[in-house]
Amino acid sequence: MKTLLLHACCAVCMAYPIQKLKEDGYDVTVFFYNPNISPVLEYERRRDELIKYCEKMGYKYIIGEFNQSDWLEFIKGFENEPEKGKRCNLCFKFRLECTVKKAIELGIKNYTTTLTVSPHKVSREIFNAADSLSDYGINFVREDFKKHDGFLKTMKLARENDFYRQQYCGCEFSIR
């Protein structure tokens, strides 16, 4: 079976993509890595909701380090960018690069992200971030999870599981 590390931003966005990836024959491990989420209580709420769902469903998961100061340093100078701007693209790259490094550490050959399920994210920019990491030699599974009613399926699963649904992407600069 093909192994895959799935970067996940929250339980809401993870529920449908993990089902699809498992149907596609992947042995999936979920990786919650989101040092961009602020405040800490919001981070903890999203993390805990994801853990609860993974445990309920029997999904393997890993919680990454919450190194917010590293993330803030990485996006420094782009704090005032609009949503879907350069700050977001840097954020994608930061989190995906950590995902790639974790996949290497674990001996996992493939990775992808749940970020493409959101209609608020530009999948092309997420793919560009992944393309910039190709030198690591880990295969990025190029999946636009919002296609084929993926976002609707995600919302249905969120309602069925009574998930906490956040009102902003997560970073302090997206709270408007």
Give a description of the structure.
The protein has about 180 residues and is an alpha/beta fold. It has 6 helices and 5 strands, in the order βαβαβααβαβα. The chain has a 5-stranded parallel β-sheet, sandwiched between helices. Helix 5 links the parallel strand 4 and strand 5. The protein is globular. It starts with a strand and ends in a 16-residue tail after the last helix. The mean pLDDT is about 95.
Describe the secondary-structure layout.
Layout: E1 2-8, H1 11-23, E2 26-32, H2 40-57, E3 60-63, H3 68-74, H4 86-106, E4 110-113, H5 123-131, E5 139-140, H6 150-160
Parallel strand pairs: 1-2, 1-4, 2-3, 4-5
Helix pairs in contact: 1-2, 1-6, 4-5
Q: Element order, helices and strands?
A: EHEHEHHEHEH
Strand order of the largest sheet: 3-2-1-4-5
Number of domain modules: 1
CATH class: Alpha Beta
Question: Radius of gyration over alpha carbons?
Answer: 15 Å
CATH fold assignment: Rossmann fold
The portion of residues forming beta strands comes to: 5-15%
Major β-sheet annotation:
5 strands, parallel
State the end-to-end distance: 44 Å
Average pLDDT taken over every residue? 94
**Inertia-based shape:** globular
DSSP strand tally: 5
Q: How many DSSP helices?
A: 6
Known CATH architecture: 3-Layer(aba) Sandwich
Q: Which segments are poorly predicted (pLDDT under 50) over 5 or more consecutive residues?
A: none
**Helicity range:** 40-55%
